[in-house]
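Task 17 of the worksheet. Students: predict the tertiary structure of the chain below and write it out as structure tokens. Keep your answer in the requested format; marks are given for formatting as well as content.
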Amino acid sequence: MYSQTYMKHFSNPQNVGKIENADDVIEVINKEEGCFDTVNLYIKYDDNIINDAKFQLKACSGTIVTFSLFTELIKGKEIEFLNKIDHDLINDELGGLPAKKAHSIRLVLEARDEILKRKNKE
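Model answer:
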């Protein structure tokens, strides 16, 4: 049912934790499905490079997995790279998510959009 990549991120999530003195903290909450997954994403920048990204959450397995993958994808990348991250990329990287876990990708995209919005204001 779940891909090897999904299971790898589920059994050993990457970048879990908090960055002290983070340059940005983004909070996303799933209010639509009633599960109330809550994620705090911590970002450290070096100019236009995402130097570090970590997350803390109270969420289902799908959200743990998608944020683990997301933080792995963005670390060391320029902000513009975020424009390449979309639903299909995340879903494909994870080998497909069941429909009941689709909200997890939406939360990642909300966090991505918030990062882009805040960096574009600078």
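Marker's comment: The helical segments are 4-11, 61-74, 87-93, 102-121. Strands lie at 24-29, 38-46, 49-58.
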